[in-house]
Amino acid sequence: MKPLFLNALLLTAFSVVVLQAQPVLTYTDFPTNPGTTINMASDWVLGPVDLGEDGPNQTWDFTGRAAGVARIQNWVDPSSTPFFAQYPTANRCSDMTEAANEHSYTYYVLTPTYITILGTGVVTPDSSWYISYTNTQPSYPFPVTYGAQWNTVYRYNYQGGSFYDSTRSEVDAWGTLTDLAGTWPCLRIRAHTTFTVSYFGFPFTTTNWSYSWLVAGRGAQITIVSASDEPNQNFTQGYFSRITGVLGVQSLPDPIAMPTNLELKSAYPNPFNASTMLTFTLPQPGEVSLTIFDAAGRPVSHLVQGHYQPGAYQVPFNGAALPSGVYYARLNSGSYQASTNLTLLK
């Protein structure tokens, strides 16, 4: 029920990656302001798909791939919609129109550091109903960078049944995307979703894989979703969707600037179990170390040690082998030192 724009957006240890030559997308790079219209074309039947390769500096060309059914996603003022009373904290809302007099409204909270869904309301000629999500984690954190990974969880109840939706996402590639409307630098997100429906105590679980190619100013330009219970992440049959046009955007985001300050940001999530992500920015080349200490001041993990170029870095920390408690991360570079507290809860 979540729109493809977010489904697509809905990391095991990996190497620290400098983002100087790679796309970095922030919340301003996604066209969600009221008055924006996103035209899409989607296939509703399985067809052959080519996912391409993962990793850095890839190229993908989808100009020869057709996609059939037109869809329209209008971003509107939440307070003007039928279900705003159920989602009074929403500051973004999409209205997905798929047939005459049928609207699917999805309500979001968008901040500079994350976007998350609050719920969905549907209006048809014969009825209206809504679903509120509970116990959610952010659908994805900003900035979106190569190598980033995160988990998203939704729980909700509907018509006598309960639903559970858990997605593991990873930005597994970056490069250049060519589609019918142009050529752009992009990031690719690979996501694995487990969806469990329980009716009267009987659970039914399905899984699928999805890939989305994110472009600044357009969002998920291409989305490919596998069939249910597809075991292979490199599947060759799937559902294909593309953005055919973005209208009503007042201005495109400014080019992303290099960091101007050396900074260690708060971990996300925090508290955590058992993995979290640390982010730091480096305005000029230099030696950098990032170490985790326990409450007694003893080092328990050396995350970063070496010479780095300017850029923004995301570094995972996995505390699965450590006991619950308070830890802190310390960043050193030249004369600069900064710390941030971490709380591990198991």
Helix/strand layout:
Layout: H1 4-7, E1 37-42, E2 47-48, E3 55-61, E4 69-76, E5 92-99, E6 102-110, E7 114-123, E8 128-132, E9 140-141, E10 149-158, E11 161-179, E12 182-199, E13 202-215, E14 219-226, E15 237-247, E16 263-264, E17 275-282, E18 286-293, E19 299-308, E20 311-318, E21 325-333, E22 336-344
Parallel strand pairs: 3-11
Antiparallel strand pairs: 1-4, 1-15, 2-15, 4-5, 5-6, 6-7, 7-8, 7-9, 10-11, 11-12, 12-13, 13-14, 14-15, 16-17, 17-20, 18-19, 18-21, 21-22
What does this structure look like?
With about 350 residues, the chain is mainly beta. It has 2 domains: about 5-245, YmcC-like fold; about 265-345, Macroglobulin (MG2) domain (Immunoglobulin-like, Sandwich), CATH 2.60.40.1930. It has one helix at about 5, and strands spanning about 35-40, 45-50, 55-60, 70-75, 90-100, 100-110, 115-125, 130, 140, 150-160, 160-180, 180-200, 200-215, 220-225, 235-245, 265, 275-280, 285-295, 300-310, 310-320, 325-335, 335-345. The strands form 3 sheets. The protein has a 15-stranded mixed beta sheet that branches. Strands 19-18-21-22 form a 4-stranded antiparallel beta sheet, with no helix packed on it. Strands 16-17-20 form a 3-stranded antiparallel beta sheet, with no helix packed on it. The chain is globular and about 65 Å long. It starts with a helix and ends with a strand. The model is unreliable at about 1-20 and about 250-255 (pLDDT under 50).
